[in-house]
Amino acid sequence: MLKTNYYISNYCSIKNSEIQLNGTCVFSEDSKDLTRFLKHYYTSKQLSYPKFFKMDRLSKLAFTGSEIILEQLAEGKESTALVFSNKSASLDTDIKHQKSIEDPTTMFASPSIFVYTLPNIGMGEVSIRHKLHTENAFFVSSQLQEDLLHEYAESLLETENCKQVLCAWVEVFENSYHGFFYLVSKNGTIAHTPPMIKELYTT
């Protein structure tokens, strides 16, 4: 039996105050503040998802990259599985949560911060936004595991429970961030291989 060939149809990078789609800059701003940068992109596109403003930075990054990739789909968006990963999990928000616990001026930890103390919450926001009822997974590792993303995405596609898989590296910690997103399916022109995933990630 011949192995099905899968391809990367679209990819997106968010880093250094710039958003690139398929290698072309689509938004940039001279700002080192991730929250402000993503907010300005959100308003420039006139998006409508009020909960965006309550999200932590990791979820905002996951939401923004996913929005850019999924808006390229003309149909079948609801058949998209999600496979995300990063290095710091939700540590960026965990630290804020710990500080709210230790704050002597408050009696309780902030619920609005606590709700984002899991790294996969951003995937939940994406699923709600795009009405996804497909499988999702979030992996934490010291660096991008292109082999894992490649194998996991193609295994989901082989089950035929989804038409495409949105893979992502969504890393946020203190002053550092990097969002990398790509869509895998039977359609596209870029071969879905671990070396190609790594190349697009480092570009």
What would you say this structure looks like, in words?
- The N and C termini lie far apart (35 Å).
- The radius of gyration is 17 Å and the shape is globular.
- With 203 residues, it is of the alpha+beta class.
- The chain has helices at residues 34-44, 57-70, 91-102, 111-114, 121-130, 146-158, 194-202, and strands at residues 7-15, 18-21, 24-28, 80-86, 136-140, 164-173, 176-185, 190-191.
- A hairpin with a 2-residue loop joins strand 6 and strand 7.
- The model has no long low-confidence stretch (mean pLDDT 93).
- The longest helix has 14 residues, at 57-70.
- The protein has one domain (7-202): Thiolase/Chalcone synthase (Peroxisomal Thiolase, Chain A, domain 1, 3-Layer(aba) Sandwich), CATH 3.40.47.
- The protein is 36% helix and 26% strand.
- Strands 1, 2, 3, 4, 5, 6, 7 and 8 form an eight-stranded mixed beta sheet that branches.
